[in-house]
Amino acid sequence: MDKKTCFTIQEIETFLFMEARLLDERRYSDWLKLFSLTAWYWVPISKEQENPYDHVSIIYDDRKLLETRLRRLNNKNIHAENPPTQTSRIIGNVTLENIDETSCIVDVSSQFQIVEFRGNRQRIFAGKIMHHLSFNRNKFFIDGKRIDLVNAEGMMEGITILF
Amino acid sequence: MNIDQLVEAGRVHRRVYLDPDIFDLELKKLFSVAWIYVGHESQVPNPGDYYCTEIACQPVIMTRNVDNSIHVLFNRCGHRGAKVVSDESGNSDIFTCCYHGWSYSNDGKLIAVPQPRGYEKNSVKIGDPAFGMAVVPRFESYRGFVFASLSPTGPSLNKFLGSITKSFDDLIDRAPGGDIVVQGGVARHLYRGNWKLIFENLCDGLHPNCVHKSSIEAAENQDDSVFSDGAGEIGVRQMRQNGVPWSFWEESVGLWAFPYGHSYLGDYHDDEKLIIERKNPFFKAYYSALKKAKGKNKAEKILSIARWNTNVFPTISFMSQFRQLRVIRPLSVDKTEVLGFCFRLKGAPEAMFHDTIRFANITNAVASPVLTDDLETYDRIRRGLEAQGNDWISTGRGMGKDTEEERGVLRAENGLSELHIRNMFNVWLSYLSK
Ligand SMILES: [Fe+2]
């Protein structure tokens, strides 16, 4: 193949690890910059959920709601994050699912595990992430991100972290 | 323990939220006596459909029988007591116990037993109610909302609900097609705190400006020109709504309390300030469908009702105007689970149901930027109440300023009153001291 590829799997992994680090370090403004202007962020209530419109979700944010969500996380009056939640996450099994070289877009699946700690309580989250990425101006952008938690259908206490 | 000493005018003893013995008493004397919400008939639309839930921490199942009748049964095998149906919902024309294979029809009758010979001396007979899945003592429906009581005697469902039925009517009558359907999945969450706290909070007009300060400020600073597919429109608007000044709650919001512990919070006026849907793109299509079905005057009358949260003590809280219903299930004295359901109005535009879902994501999702601050507050109440400095919790806001609107129905001074809390505890006490 003589066509130059837009990206390599190493570049994509580097991007995902950098993204994970921003979330663990609570650098939400920097994290938001990774998203394109019409991006969505979605945590469905079940693996079978086909769309976020006719079914409730754990989170479904368009760009506007995501901005407000992140602004709240940085607001000093946020009781649910006082004290702040600490997280440590591992991203693995990174796989390129659909590659469109002409438009430089790619769907990437990965698995994750997050240990969360707040107020002397520890929880574990795990699941699958599907990133819909586009590559332009020499950078990756997240056009959409779907997170399927293994316990999405379970009964959980309040969640203030992002996956 | 003298229960009577725990509730006084304008205050309750902290033990009502903390004491496991009181929780056991609540299961026995309140949750096993009052009418408990089981589910909506649309959750079991076809013969064989079932939906499992709990009453007083006991597993029950609502079923639709072959003859289309609805039944509420204890979800327990008549043989050795195993829970028969384990999926939360589904369809099956026969329920078979995993343990020894006893099988039941949708109305709980024992219909088959493997190796029947061995049971002869035990007089196990097919069809004998003594060996069936027991039927709960009473169940009734109000316009599709199914309630059950574990007590064979007591007031009828109609008497129990009284005129709070108008809130159910408000929800149903908004459907141009004349009926509503539960759809869109279940939003679940769990909080560490007593079950009564959510009933207090859902009609508490004073708390949003404190509890939800972070989401209010975040929403107020949101640039409205940013792209939204609808989720942000509804979400941000709702968060801003929480930030209306306290003067608004005093001047324009009302709170009403009913016999048997029910209450609702609503608008005095139909001034469009809170009937925000009138501005939505789909509203025109919806309005003309409603007008066509009901006539102009009736349609206007239906839309002028502005009830927000209606609490039906002790199991549900719903928003007729926003088509949301929360089921509150106590697990223990300090653990409560909440299930959020959405309703689709028959005959209304699809876009309206999408807004119902968006609204649910903001108000009921476990990761909601609004709800998570309520849950944190419940947790802090649980921890704070452990402190022994003062045994009493104040419930006295607006006390002495209530007026009786119709028989037994009290109207609070304004939307910042704690009337609904005082009313709830008066009723609570009458159940528990019986
Ligand atoms: Fe709240």
Please outline what is shown here.
The complex is a heterodimer of chains A (163) and B (434). With 163 residues, chain A is an alpha+beta fold.
Report on the structure:
The complex is a heterodimer of chains A (163) and B (434). Helices cover 20% and strands 44% of the residues of chain A. Chain A is an alpha+beta fold and 163 residues long. Chain A has a domain at 9-49 and 83-149: Roll (Nuclear Transport Factor 2, Chain: A). A six-stranded mixed β-sheet of chain A has the order 2-1-6-5-4-3. The longest helix of chain A is centred in the first third of the chain and has 16 residues, at 9-24. Chain A is globular and about 45 Å long. With 434 residues, chain B is of the alpha+beta class. Helix content of chain B is 30%, strand content 26%. Chain B contains 14 helices and 22 strands. In chain B, strand 4 and strand 5 form a beta hairpin. In chain B, helix 7 (213-220) crosses helix 8, helix 8 (231-241) crosses helix 12 (350-363) and helix 10 (283-294) packs across helix 11 (296-304).
What is the overall number of helices of chain A? 3
- The CATH topology annotation of one domain in chain A reads as Nuclear Transport Factor 2, Chain: A
Query: Could you give the order of the helices and strands of chain A?
Result: HHEEHEEEE
Average pLDDT taken over every residue of chain B: 95
Outline of chain B: globular
* Class by alpha and beta content of chain A: alpha+beta
Query: What is the level 1 CATH name of the largest domain in chain B?
Result: Alpha Beta
Distance between the termini of chain A: 36 Å
Question: What is CATH's topology name of the largest domain in chain B?
Answer: Naphthalene 1,2-dioxygenase Alpha Subunit, Chain A, domain 1
Regions with little confidence, pLDDT below 50 for 5+ residues of chain B = none
Total DSSP E strands of chain B: 22
Based on the coordinates given, report the CATH architecture of the largest domain in chain B.
Alpha-Beta Complex
The helical percent of chain B reads 25-40%
List the strand order in the largest sheet of chain B.
13-19-18-17-16-15-14-22-21
User: CATH superfamily of the largest domain in chain B, please?
Assistant: Naphthalene 1,2-dioxygenase Alpha Subunit, Chain A, domain 1
